[in-house]
Please model this.
Amino acid sequence: RKVFKKPGLLTRDARIKERRKYGLKKARKAPQFSKR
Model:
């Protein structure tokens, strides 16, 4: 592909995985929440 002239547009995906937070199962997904 010669369409993408910008470097690293086709080779590497710039989107990196969000690091998982403390107290959560993943970066965004929280464990099952109950009010009481």
About this structure: DSSP finds no helices and no strands in the chain. The CA atoms of residues 7 and 23 lie 38 Å apart.
